Amino acid sequence: MSEVRVRNLSLAYGATKALDDVSLDFPDGQLFGLLGPSGSGKTTLLRCVAGFVFPDHGSVMIGGESVERVPVEKREIGMMFQSYALFPNMSVADNIGFGLKVRHLDKPEIARRVGESLELVHLEGLGDRRPHALSGGQRQRVALARAIVTRPRVLLLDEPLSALDKALRSEMQVELRRIQREVGITTIFVTHDQEEALTLSDQIGILRAGRLVRSGVPRNLYHVPQDRFTASFLGEANFFDGKAEQGGLRLASGTLLPWPGQKVEGLGTLAVRPEEMTISAAGPAERNETCAIRGELVRISFSGPTALCLVRGEGQQFSVLVKNSELTEIPVSGPVTVSWPAARSMQIRD
Amino acid sequence: MSQPRGISRVLGRGYVGLVLFFLYAPILVMALMSFNASEFYAFPLSFTLDWYRRLWGNAGIVASAWRSLWIAVATTAIATVLGTAAALALFRYEFRGKRLLQALLFPPIAIPWLIIGTAMLIFFFWVGIGRGTPAVILGHVALALPYVIVVVAARLQTFDPQLEEAARSLGAGQWVVTRDVTLPWIASGVVAGALFAFAVSFDQFVVSYFLAQPGDATLPVVIYTAIRKGFTPEINAISTIIIAVSMAVMLAASRFFKFGGER
Amino acid sequence: MAQATSRRDALRAGVLLAPAYLWLTVAVFLPLSAMLFFSFLSAAPFTSANWHVTGLNYAEFLTRSIYPDLLGRSLLLAAIVTLACVLIGYPCAYVLARQVKGRAREALFLLIILPFWSNSLVRIFSWAIVLRGNGIIDHTLGALLPFVSVNLMFSYTAVVIGLVHSYLPYVILTSYLALQAIDESILEAARSLGAPFRTILFRLLLPLSLQGLAAGAVLIFVPVAGSFMEPRILGGKHGIFYGTLIEDQFVATFNWPLGAALSFILLAVVLVILAAASPILKRAR
Q1: How many residue pairs bridge chain A and chain C with CB atoms within 8 Å of each other?
Q2: Among A69, A191, B25, C173, which lies 20 to 30 A Cα-Cα from A239?
Q3: Using the beta-carbon criterion (under 8 Å), do A12 and C5 form an inter-chain contact?
């Protein structure tokens, strides 16, 4: 078990910078999620830590040891692949035991540890099966067991759950978390699914175009996103641009959004999560701690327990998430007032 | 059409039957005649194994048959190993000139063997290799290599490169990865490639014709020389054996390689 | 990627590739280059100490009309054989690809391409047995129509029959691959629009499988233009073609430089044909 640090990592494929001066710490024993759109460099970063690619510049340290020029097979890492990459010509037990066989452990020891791993992932008795005779979830468990049975210093997961359907995915999220805790291994996983990143991770790093945008604890990133990209990539956000004034933000239309405790000068932007907003037919209640905007309800898209209302106002469109039970209090269309507690406004600094 | 009307279905099958008749009838006639007692292929047929017995006594043909066989085995071994290695490299690595290397496999397949054979004859004489069995093997391997590479590469198309990465992440070096993960997957392609190589060599006439030493030739060359002197049922007998062997080899290959490109 | 991995990878790729490509270089590419050089020599260096560089071999091709005539004769033969193979093979490929299904299709297809990989010399010889006077065709016809005797052996027709037999599987193979790749729903769409079979054939099937058909045609035309064994065995005195001319230079008259020049002219023709066909072959990739 070891901490992983990368410092000033850069890697270019021809003219495209896959990684651009990325520095990040992956603390010992934590589950760290790398999140970003496709092409953001998250997978490249993972493959740099794994040793499949070597960086042009910068260092990769695993447990305090510089490894950026060590090829993958000598790095003592465990990796789980998006397609699971189970060896089709080997049984489940041989798949799991492969890394131990490569390390020339004797047969009884291999059998013992393979047995332990099967127990850990709740696949007792399936050791003789072939991978193609397993279900998707079972294959995933085998892949995980295979990756950790060698007791690697770090576990790397490349989009580990993307091949599973929704129900199985949430079940496996819990399982993954349990096993990771039980083993206590430093884990880095790559995903493009922000919900998955928020659920699973101790910490999250957000990448965009090869650069690290932000990193931190999920709650913190969600509630204090600081930049537009993080705010809109982690969850949804409505943005309001305006001029900072004493006590608030003055929008172009003249509406003042009170914003106590913020020191903003010049132009400023605030972001509000759709679920923090409420919508009503009545006029605005003028209170100091409440922001209110008048607008026109354009459309309601119903999605089971909640509904998303699209509102036009202040020269833009924004969305408001309402509980199903509150839907009855809202007109189907026409003028509405959207409001939220001023403390829920998040400051955007870029 | 998924549901052709009955008549076109019958017509279609009948037509394929005719084509098959055209392809196989002469071979069957030839095989039949090898069991005919009459030296002049006269009718009616009277069964005999005489020609096969005589064949066995014909030292020249027997020697050339064994020579053809071991040249084919040697060609198969060399071409399979070199071709599989090359296919692996073309699959695994990205490098400049890769497309050129792939394109270079085309000329040995596409250029008529007459041209390649005569070119080999000139060059081998020039550099002192001359004619004979080494020259024949040199030529046969070169003709078989592109087939092996293409067939193995086709099998590799279905191989998930993440399997190699997974094995490496578990600590396996290049050789262990190849032996335990890659080769088991492409084994059927390698076997098919080997059988193709065997067929290219064992059935090779044109290139052997120019490169073999007279008196030390391969079976097809000996048969060609014999045919030009006049037909004898002995030639039918050895031809029947050859066609049986090569069809058996290709039937075996078909178990490992989908010619139809499905599945 | 200026990295150590790529340098190591380059080394590994080199180790794996070098043996195969060195072999091809020594046994194919160097010989072809040597032949080009040789075609400009007055005599073979290893038979005569008195040799020099000359264009005479090519001049001889142009001045003695028998050579271009034979080349034309071979190209005509190749065209006839190719056309026959296409006309016979394409419908067969169509039936296999679109009318037969499942195991029957697999078995039939295998039967058709099996001869493709068996000894061509032996198959040509088998036609000699069938076509010869007093052979099986003669007998069969004789039984039906007394006093009629056919002897196709040693004729142009015999050469064409033998070559069609040899190369027919190529065009069936390539056309079949192209035809079975056509999405059934495209054809169903055409039928739902009321298209008759003729329209479907000429507007959909043929254009969509043209690549495979052309590949098969090239694979037949090129080797037939250079054939010599088949005309020798089946053609007799009608079996003089460009290929046999080249063969003679190497095994009978031993004029290797002339043979090299003749080979090279054939290679040039082959390359022109491949280049001409390449737009069709590359299309739809």
Answers
A1: 16
A2: A191
A3: no
Residue B108, pLDDT > 50, answer: yes
C186 band by pLDDT with thresholds 50, 70 and 90: confident
| Nearest-by-CA chain B residue for C228 | B114
Inter-chain touch B236–C129, beta carbons under 8 Å = yes
Q: What is the CA angle A35-A40-A43, rounded to 5?
A: 70
Closest residue by Cα to residue A257 from A337, A341, A178: A341
Residue contact C115–B29, C-beta within 8 A: no
For chain C, the residues whose C-beta falls within 8 A of a C-beta of chain A are: 1-5, 8
Residue B145 lies in a domain: yes
Residue in chain C nearest B236 by alpha carbon: C126
> Subunits touching A (CB < 8 Å, at least 3 pairs)?
B, C
Over residues C226-237, mean pLDDT: 91
CA–CA distance, B27 with C122 (Å, rounded to integer): 8
Q: Is residue B181 part of a domain?
A: yes
B162 touches chain A (CB under 8 A): yes
Question: Above pLDDT 90, what percent of chain A?
Answer: 54
User: C208: which residues sit within 8 A by CB, 6+ positions away?
Assistant: C178, C182, C186, C284
The pTM is what? 0.83
pLDDT for position A254: 82
Number of domains in chain B: 2
Check CB contact of B183 with chain A, cutoff 8 Å.
no
Given a contact cutoff of 8 angstroms between Cβ atoms, the answer to whether A33 and A189 are in contact is: yes
Report d(CA B28, CA B21) in Å as an integer: 10
Beta-strand ranges (E) seen in C116-191 are none
Strand partners, A250: A243, A256
A146 Cβ under 8 Å from any chain B Cβ = yes
Bridge partners for A292 per DSSP:
A339
E strand or H helix at C162, and its extent?
helix C156-180
CA–CA distance, C57 with C67 (Å, rounded to integer)? 11
The number of residues in chain B equals 263
Is the CB of residue B165 less than 8 Å away from at least one CB of chain A?
Answer: yes
Contacts of B176 in chain A (CB under 8 A): 102
Q: Which residues pair with A203 in a beta bridge?
A: A32
Longest dimension (CA), chain B: 72
Distance from CA of A137 to the nearest CA of B (A): 18
Residue A39 has pLDDT above 60, yes or no: yes
The answer to whether the CB atoms of A72 and B165 lie below 8 A apart is yes
| B166 has a chain A CB within 8 A of its CB | yes
Beta bridge partners of A60: A6
Distance of CA B15 to the CA centre of its chain: 28
Host domain of residue B6: 1-25
Q: What is the 3-state secondary structure (H, E, C) of A70-131?
A: CCHHHCCEEEECCCCCCCCCCCHHHHHHHHHHHCCCCHHHHHHHHHHHHHHCCCCCCCCCCH
Shortest CA distance to A150 belongs to which of A182, A113, A177?
A113
Among A13, A48, A54, most C C-beta atoms within 10 A, so best to mutate, is A54
How far is B226 from B231, CA to CA, in rounded Å?
A: 7
Q: How far is C104 from chain A (nearest CA, A)?
A: 28
Same domain, B247 and B151: yes
**Same structural domain, B92 and B221:** yes
The token pair that represents C146 in the structure block: 């007394």
Is A13 at the interface with chain B, CB within 8 A?
Answer: no
Q: 3-class DSSP state for residue A20?
A: strand
Q: Which domains does chain A have, with CATH numbers?
A: 4-223 (3.40.50.300), 236-348 (2.40.50.100)
Assign residue C119 the CATH number of its domain: 1.10.3720.10
Domain that holds residue C241: 65-284
Residues of chain B positioned with their CB less than 8 A from the CB of A150: 170-171
ipTM for the predicted complex comes to 0.89
Q: Which of A76, A79, A103 sits opposite B166 (nearest CB)?
A: A79
Partner chains of B (3+ C-beta pairs under 8 Å):
A, C
In chain C, how many domains are there?
1
